[in-house]
Design goal:
globular, alpha+beta, 4-stranded antiparallel beta sheet
């Protein structure tokens, strides 16, 4: 499992990130230590607290993760560090 942090500030950004996650060939989870959501499910994503950065977890190899993280560049949290 590989991770990075994102920040989503509007419903449009949530929808855009969900579309990006749906296009991946591997599971993508989003959340915090307290709660995880399936990034492909609107109902699941709406249960998250967007006031803080969210951790994205991708169950994929390093090459696929690198591509996914580049595609998600616009959502990366400013406090993002290599996790």
């Amino acid at each position: 499992m590989q991770e990075f942090e994102i920040s989503l500030h509007s419903f449009q950004e949530v929808q855009e990130f969900m579309a990006l996650a749906a296009g991946q060939g591997f599971p993508v989870m989003v959340g915090s230590d307290a709660h995880q959501a399936n990034a492909r499910s609107l109902m699941s994503m709406m249960t998250l607290d967007y006031r803080e950065p969210l951790r994205v977890q991708a169950d994929c190899d390093a090459e696929a993760f690198s591509r996914f993280r580049q595609q998600a560049d616009k959502f990366l949290s400013t406090s993002n560090t290599a996790l």
